[in-house]
Design goal:
This protein is α+β, with helices and mostly antiparallel strands. Among the domains are: 37 residues; 166 residues, Four Helix Bundle (Hemerythrin (Met), subunit A), CATH 1.20.120. Helices cover 50% and strands 25% of the residues. The protein contains eleven helices and 21 strands. The chain has a six-stranded antiparallel barrel. Strands 3-10-8-5 form a four-stranded antiparallel β-sheet, with no helix packed on it. Helix 3 packs antiparallel against helix 10 and helix 5 runs parallel beside helix 7. The longest helix is centred in the first third of the chain and has 46 residues. It is elongated. The chain starts with a helix and ends with a strand. 26% of the residues are buried.
Length: 602
């Protein structure tokens, strides 16, 4: 044969078929991955359910006959009441004896009141606010707005007044700048100049009125009554004439000094003229006083009538008043000049104070307005809130408050019941060991209950569940001998406080008393296997989901995945009661009927 014939055709070789198989496998895998990448993700989902949720503890034990049942208190205390006597027949649930539980009764009453209050609050949230309440909140809102407007107005007025005071202080400060040459000092000297001129007129009038009576310069003025002047005391006339001469001299001195004065005169000349004017006023004041005394010594005789004498006295009195006023005025003006010279420091202090007061007024105004605006915002939010229907979160919070109050009531009742011995089943009192007022220790046998048809079951409960069970709790019992269709009623009669360790797990022995079955059709025998279910807690009308759907993030916060627009989205939730069958209560975060993701379907 030739070489070509010796060689097999390639498609008849084993290696060819191996290559073909590998290629087909690779193509299949690639096709599968491409198909998977283009196929939408599918999820297994479940819905949020609204219903009743129960939490139970189950255990298995054996039926044992107990003709006598020892009953004990779960706490120590003083015996307060014994309700039954030996040989009395009792029914299940009857209270046989009781310790002093007044404080526990008070706690039960308080917890019961809290439940009623929480229920009323939930009803109020569900029903919404009343019209009267809405109107009262609206009134509060309106008052807050009116108060804001008033505070704004008052604050604006306060700031405006402070600004006006500051402007006045600033103007005074500017006027006082320059010391002796300041505008305010110049104004004070101008006032002093005007006062000096006024003093001149008053001195002149007073001298004229006096001369019209004395007739010294105007010798003809008193010819008709000259002889009767000071008729009662001639010395008074002499004194008046001397004072007139002195006053005239003082007035002439002022006229000489003032004749060269004007508004632009030097401050020194004005100061000097003011001193002369002050001296002239003193002299004229003395003159007028002497004139009054002289007229008092004059009597109406001859040509001097009483009316004329009274007129002259009135004229002199008016002059005295005018001179006294001018004297006070010129003293005031002289002091004003001195004050104006020292006013810069005073006005500087006043300006600084006015400036600080303005800043304080602005700051206070801003704070007052901000506070009032916050009050308006709060009142508006409250008003808007009461107008709207009850929010889901408010209802959930009110329900949670009610559940919490109910749990507190259950706990208070359980604590109170530790001080009571309650018949767990029907029977006869065989013995009572204790007296009223006697101190009884916990777990000491106090009552023996006799029942020939009485059975009990002892079960071991792990430490994780023992805290959920209390003496007096009801239990549901099924016997393997009669199947799951036949249920028997039991009640927890005893919980041992001593632990039992079984395979490194801590258990506590719980005794469940079965109700009297003497009339039952079932023949219960010792040793029968019993399945016991304790209903530890239940809630009605709550939201729940499977426990396995709840996840936790890095901050240990709980969330679930919901399907939104064909995409998984996180929703954070709060949980409550963990029920049977892997269910858990949702207290916030979800609504009834929402679909949540259980897992992703490959």
């Amino acid at each position: 044969m030739s070489e070509e014939k010796k060689k097999k055709k390639f498609y008849k070789r084993k290696s060819f078929y191996a290559i073909v198989v590998v290629a087909l496998l690779v193509a299949s895998i690639v096709y599968g991955q491409v198909k998977k990448a283009n196929t939408p993700i599918s999820y297994e989902t479940t819905k949020v359910v609204m219903g009743n949720l129960s939490q139970t503890v189950d255990a298995t034990g054996n039926v044992a006959s107990a003709g006598e049942l020892d009953l004990r208190f779960e706490k120590s205390g003083n015996m307060a009441k014994i309700y039954k006597n030996v040989n009395d027949k009792v029914k299940a649930g009857d209270i046989i004896a009781e310790l002093d539980v007044r404080s526990e009764n008070a706690q039960v009453a308080g917890a019961s009141a809290s439940v009623q209050q929480a229920q009323a609050n939930l009803n109020k949230v569900l029903s919404g606010a009343t019209d009267d309440y809405v109107l009262s909140i609206k009134s509060t809102y309106d008052k807050a707005k009116a108060s804001l407007d008033q505070i704004k107005s008052t604050s604006a007025d306060t700031v405006a007044n402070a600004e006006a005071v500051l402007r006045t202080a600033e103007n005074n400060l500017k006027l006082s700048e320059g010391g002796e040459d300041s505008q305010i000092v110049g104004n004070a000297y101008q006032d002093l100049f005007v006062t000096i001129q006024s003093v001149q007129n008053s001195l002149s009038n007073a001298l004229t009125d006096s001369d019209n009576i004395l007739g010294i310069d105007n010798t003809l003025a008193n010819d008709s009554f000259e002889d009767v002047l000071s008729a009662l005391d001639s010395s008074k006339l002499y004194t008046a004439e001397i004072k007139y001469s002195l006053a005239k001299s003082a007035k002439d001195s002022l006229d000489n000094v003032a004749s060269s004065l004007n508004l632009n005169s030097s401050h020194e000349s004005l100061d000097s003229a003011a001193e002369v004017a002050e001296s002239g006023l003193v002299s004229v004041k003395d003159l007028l006083f002497a004139m009054s005394q002289m007229l008092d010594a004059t009597v109406p005789i001859g040509n001097l009538s009483q009316a004329d004498l009274t007129t002259k006295k009135s004229t002199i009195s008016a002059d005295r008043t005018d001179i006294s006023t001018k004297y006070s005025t010129i003293i005031t003006k002289i002091q004003a000049v001195e004050t104006s010279k020292n006013s810069y420091v005073t006005y500087q202090i006043a300006y600084n104070k006015a400036k600080a007061n303005l800043e304080n007024a602005k700051t206070k105004a801003l704070a007052d307005v901000a506070s009032a605006e916050a009050t308006v915002t709060q009142a508006e939010a409250q008003y808007n809130d009461v107008k709207n229907p009850a929010r889901t979160e408010d209802v959930s919070a009110a329900r949670a408050q009610l559940y919490g109050a109910q749990a507190s009531l259950s706990q208070a009742v359980a604590m109170r019941n530790k001080g009571r011995i309650v018949a767990p089943l029907d029977g006869t009192i065989g013995k009572i060991d204790g007296k009223v007022g006697e101190f009884v220790t916990a777990n000491a046998t106090v009552v023996k209950l006799v029942n020939p048809n009485f059975f009990e079951i002892q079960v071991d409960i792990p430490e994780t569940d023992i805290i959920k069970i209390s003496v007096g709790d009801d239990a549901d019992i099924t016997l393997d001998a009669y199947g799951d269709d036949h249920h028997f009623v039991g009640k927890v009669s005893e919980i041992e406080i001593g632990e039992t360790v079984i395979q490194d797990v801590v258990y506590y022995k719980v005794t469940v008393s079965m109700e009297d079955n003497s009339e039952d059709e079932f023949n219960i025998l010792n040793g029968m296997t019993a399945n016991v279910v304790f209903y530890t807690e239940s809630k009605e009308n709550v939201l729940y989901i499977p426990q396995r759907t709840i996840r936790t993030d890095e901050e240990n916060k709980k969330y679930v995945l919901i399907l939104k627009n064909n995409k998984a989205e996180n929703v954070y939730v709060s949980t409550g009661l963990r029920g049977d069958n892997g269910l858990v209560e949702i207290t916030s975060g979800l609504e009834e009927g929402q679909e949540i993701i259980v897992r992703e379907i490959e």
